[in-house]
Amino acid sequence: MSVPMFATAGIALKPEHFRDVHERGPDMDGLWVEVHAENYMVEGGPRLAWLRVIAEQTPVSLHGVGLSLAGPGRVDEDHLARWRRLVDRVPAALVSEHLAWSVADGQYFADLLPVVLDGTSLARVRENVERFQDAIGRTVLIENPAHYVPLRAEIPETDFLSELCRTTGCGLLLDLNNLAVGEFNIGRDARGYIEALPRDIVGEIHLAGAAPDSAREDLLIDSHNRPVADPVWELLDAALERFGPVPVLIERDANLPPFEELAAERERAHAAIIAAQARRERLDEPVG
């Protein structure tokens, strides 16, 4: 099952805001929500029941965090089966995962670990993305990673992701906070990254907040526990200019604010999408 997704703004849905989204979401123009898929890979219970109720009135995006697409081996077949059951139960507008790994030799690491970008990694990730898409019968989006230290890369990350999308048919989930974190930590040019990507590759954009590391003020962590920072809002305008209006998500996973504060950030993102659409329509108007 799937439902249409439009170029509007959404929020990361947490249990604390289930009732707010259910009661107030229909009055918010184009609201959609995204959840971490693994939290709903259960056979029953109130959390899954709430999500299914919300999905009846609000588009839902399923965002995976544990498939380990870039791990040293094949993606776990049991995990793929759980994904299949979830997309059968919850009509999803979008499905996404990360360019990262979290499983090795049967051991799970509760983190999204970095990938060496070379031909071997590209072949492995490509194979696992194809398995994922075949298992759920859906095209997926793959999220670009955050960076904390420079890593060896035989293939530029933008080329790696572009080739992955070209050869598997998947799309890109462009996380702009990850770009801002990488620019702060290792000096990577965030706007240059945006310009290096093909215009038709991005299917969703993430916005989030970051925080300094508790031990090092010169290291920024993709913490999702603060409001979206001004540099990330500026990157949103640049991304919408290049890729056109696409769904934009406000990610907030910790230090959750009242729903009104989250909704205000969402409205700012929604206004940016509308402005980008208006600019595009003006450019498309015939002259003379």
UniProtKB/TrEMBL annotation:
One Pfam annotation reads MbnB_TglH_ChrH
Under InterPro entries, the record lists:
MbnB/TglH/ChrH, Xyl_isomerase-like_sf
Q: What is this protein called?
A: DUF692 domain-containing protein
Instruction: Give the organism, scientific name.
Output: Marinicauda algicola
Query: What does the organism's lineage look like at the top?
Result: Bacteria, Pseudomonadati, Pseudomonadota, Alphaproteobacteria, Maricaulales
